[in-house]
Amino acid sequence: MVDPTENESLIGAHTLKAFDEDLDQLRALISQMGGLAEHQIRESMRCLTQRDIEGARKVVEADRRLDELETETERRAIETIALRAPLAGDLRDVVAALKISNVVERIGDYAKNIARRVEELESAPAIEPLSLMPEMARIATEMVHDVLNAFVERDAETALRVARRDQAVDDFYNSIFRTLLTHMMEDSHNIGHATQLLFVAKNIERVGDHATNIAEMVYYAATGGRMADALNADDTV
């Protein structure tokens, strides 16, 4: 005769293993989305600097895959909540995955927006702000890469470091904004392409903001605390 307590223990272990597998699948989907979003940003910037119109069209078309992955992540997250009824830290992990997939999809949208401006800037003269943007995009893309690794590893310290790096992206944006404004004031013929580049810089700046938003979600999922409190505590040291 089977011991009832042994049966309950086996059911509990089975449920725990199933939840861990669900969570691993969610993390894998988020990693896949992140890798694609990073590639999209890098490729859109390459197309912009090399005036590669055909490559830019491929970036726009590839955004559809990110949309599909977001839908799949949402479906699995809702299914996990409905079937496993996770609590406390487990629930925070699933909700974080749900929110992060939405933010990563938005990051892909920014890459698509940049790619759509390549054709309009094809004949624009090479000016200083355009040479600064790849470095700005590199920092923003690294923030996305690092913060998604932090989500997989439940690494609150890395999430904090990512949030602190957003200031570097903001500094690039402010510098580029001032330079583009000067170009427009010096010659009205610069207004058209300078405005397009301003939109590109703003899109990269928003990527940094979204990486910071993800960092806040990761920090909360890992600790249950608010990242703002940790950053404020640093400021008082």
From TrEMBL:
Location within or outside the cell: Cytoplasm
Record-level GO BP terms: intracellular phosphate ion homeostasis; negative regulation of phosphate metabolic process; phosphate ion transport
Any one annotated GO CC term: cytoplasm
Major localization class: cytoplasm
Domain PhoU: 30-118, 135-218
Keyword annotations from UniProtKB, A to Z: Cytoplasm, Phosphate transport, Transport
Stored InterPro entries: PhoU, PhoU-like_sf, PhoU_dom
Domain of life: Bacteria
General function of this protein: Plays a role in the regulation of phosphate uptake.
Family statement: Belongs to the PhoU family.
Subunit structure: Homodimer.
Protein name: Phosphate-specific transport system accessory protein PhoU
Gene: phoU
